[in-house]
């Protein structure tokens, strides 16, 4: 018997619908009433979304941006776009309208699926106001669809979710089904934007073959099956929630339970009520659950597999996850956006010390080695096709032999386990999200009176690392930490805003005149800190 075709997301969805048809694919308790979709119903809804896109002239190769939280609408939007060969462009819900507008512009998105109010901000309203206030690329977007999360925006340019789906006719549904058969494995499936040390974001091109392969590999390592229920807290705009999240579930018939905003008490209640067996996220997620009083007396013995990483994982945390949160298996992994989020992983049966202190061994199809200066180089079928419209950056990242230069310093033990020990770049990770200091420094440098600045990652018990800004100011300038964070908050996502600000007389420099961030890291806590922003 031939193996089922799962080499593209349309093929994967058809396989899932054929195999698990009337079983539950998605339970979304954020919808009112809660949305329960079988695999057949998910397939039908995806096809309807795809048909409605065709109604607006969105076809193979066009880009569809999604700026929305984890709800079933995100899954339908992504799979529906890819069903006709369109390319998905996820946008972080932590981004401001300025940041989102930049990605929409550079990706030349023809359609936008967007949320209204979320995390205290009106995403769609802010974007429309930005478009009205100055010339932006939003006029190139043919279609704007608002998902029904909080109140709708009244604007002639915006279609509600249900009005949009109602535009799918029988003829368009047939066209969408025909288009799905033309999607091939090497077609680009998505463009995920990441930042570089220059602060300039880069769009990473990944194919259908790579995206679905990540889901298969991740699910295989995590031992997913049809009986599992996966509470997906990791955001869909990130590979962890998207490719290791719902795409993985589609391979194994695992029920998806999307969730947008982490609240320990809500999550504990959801685990108990929905009998969640798979949970993923940064270490701070699990630490928060363990420390919350609502955990006492709750029946959470359904928990089976946890995957964490992105920052240091204490051995004691792994042990507590296994005993107090009842996980049979705790895994850690390592990846980059440039590798579809996956390079190495620990395996079932690894000791807590291995899980906590390493990122495991390479997954099938990936190779690793160390450069003479200790930089981790990776090669294999998950390495990106390149950066969007940036061949120079692509050539810098991937050498002539196909090795991707990660910028991470690593060690490899006798068993082949990778441990990330430092970074060639200055990037740090706060709560599981990458922050690139150069981008933050550019914003601070524009504040009146600032003569110099440097941002580093400083250790934080809850988030792993937080931004610590060292600033020099012009004589006679009065600048508070709150003023700095307010200016940053106006243009940067919240997780990028420094939590600590230190005013110094001068910034240390090395022999070549560059700011010595090694010295700054050694100094943390030894200068006057404006505690009003800590």
Description:
With 534 residues, the chain is an alpha/beta fold. 33% of the residues lie in helices and 25% in strands. The protein contains 17 helices and 28 strands. Strand 3 (63-67), helix 3 and strand 4 form a beta-alpha-beta unit. The longest helix is centred in the N-terminal third of the chain and has 17 residues, at 39-55. The protein starts with 8 loop residues before the first helix and ends in an 11-residue tail after the last helix. Residues 526-534 have low confidence and may be disordered.
List keywords for this structure.
alpha/beta, 5-stranded parallel sheet, 7-stranded mixed sheet, 534 residues, single chain
Which strands sit side by side, in order, in the main sheet? 13-12-14-15-16-17-18
**Helix percentage:** 25-40%
Unreliable spans are 526-534
| Main sheet properties | 7 strands, mixed
* Count of individual beta strands: 28
Query: Helical stretch count?
Result: 17
From the spread of the alpha carbons, the general shape counts as globular
> What portion of residues belong to β-strands?
15-25%
Radius of gyration using CA atoms only? 23 Å
Distance between the termini: 61 Å
Compute the average pLDDT.
90
By secondary-structure content and strand pairing, the structural class works out as: alpha/beta
In brief, what are we looking at here?
The chain has 534 residues and is an alpha/beta fold.
């Amino acid at each position: 018997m031939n193996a089922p075709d799962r080499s593209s997301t349309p093929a994967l969805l058809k396989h899932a619908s054929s195999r698990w048809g009337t079983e539950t694919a998605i339970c979304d308790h954020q919808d009112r009433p809660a949305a329960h979709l079988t695999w057949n119903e998910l397939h039908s809804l995806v096809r309807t979304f795809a048909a409605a896109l065709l109604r607006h002239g969105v076809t193979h190769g066009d880009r569809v941006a999604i700026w929305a939280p984890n709800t079933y609408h995100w899954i339908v939007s992504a799979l529906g776009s890819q069903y006709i060969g369109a390319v998905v462009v996820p946008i972080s819900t932590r981004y401001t309208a300025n940041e989102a507008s930049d990605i929409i512009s550079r990706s030349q998105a023809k359609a936008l699926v967007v949320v209204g109010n979320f995390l205290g901000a009106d995403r769609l309203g802010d974007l429309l106001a930005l478009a009205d206030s100055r010339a932006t690329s939003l006029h190139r977007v043919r279609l704007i669809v608002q998902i029904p999360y909080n109140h709708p925006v009244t604007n002639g340019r915006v279609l509600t979710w249900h009005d949009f789906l109602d535009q799918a006719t029988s003829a368009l549904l047939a066209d969408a089904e025909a288009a799905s058969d033309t999607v091939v494995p090497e077609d680009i499936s998505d463009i995920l934007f990441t930042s570089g040390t220059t602060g300039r974001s880069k769009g990473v091109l990944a194919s259908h073959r790579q995206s679905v392969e990540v889901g298969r590999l991740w699910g295989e390592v995590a031992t997913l099956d049809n009986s599992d229920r996966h509470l997906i807290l990791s955001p869909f705009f990130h590979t962890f929630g998207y490719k290791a999240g719902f795409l993985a579930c589609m391979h194994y018939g695992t029920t998806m339970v999307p969730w947008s905003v982490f609240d320990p008490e809500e999550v504990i209640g959801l685990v108990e009520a929905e009998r969640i067996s798979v949970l993923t996220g940064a270490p701070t997620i699990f630490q928060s659950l363990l420390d919350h009083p609502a955990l006492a007396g709750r029946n959470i013995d359904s928990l089976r597999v946890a995957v964490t990483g992105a920052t240091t994982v204490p051995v004691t945390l792994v042990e507590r996850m296994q005993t107090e949160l009842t996980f049979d298996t705790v895994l850690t992994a390592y990846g980059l956006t440039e590798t579809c989020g996956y390079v190495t992983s620990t395996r079932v049966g690894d000791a807590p010390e291995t899980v906590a202190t390493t990122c495991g061994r390479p997954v099938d199809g990936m190779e690793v080695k160390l450069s003479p200066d200790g930089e981790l180089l990776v090669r294999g079928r998950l390495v990106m096709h390149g950066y969007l419209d940036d061949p120079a950056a692509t050539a810098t990242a991937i050498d002539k032999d196909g090795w991707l230069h990660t910028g991470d310093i690593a060690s490899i033990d006798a068993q082949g386990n990778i441990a990330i020990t430092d970074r060639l770049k200055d990037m740090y990770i706060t709560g599981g999200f990458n922050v690139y200091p150069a981008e933050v420094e550019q914003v601070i440098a524009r504040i009146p009176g600032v003569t110099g600045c440097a941002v580093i990652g400083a250790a934080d018990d809850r988030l792993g690392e937080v931004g610590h800004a060292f600033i020099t100011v012009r004589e006679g300038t009065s600048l508070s930490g709150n003023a700095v964070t307010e200016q940053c908050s106006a243009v940067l996502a919240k997780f990028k805003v420094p939590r600590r600000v230190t005013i110094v007389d001068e910034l240390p420099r090395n022999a070549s005149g560059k700011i010595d961030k090694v010295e700054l890291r050694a100094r943390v806590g030894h200068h006057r800190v404006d505690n009003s922003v800590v």
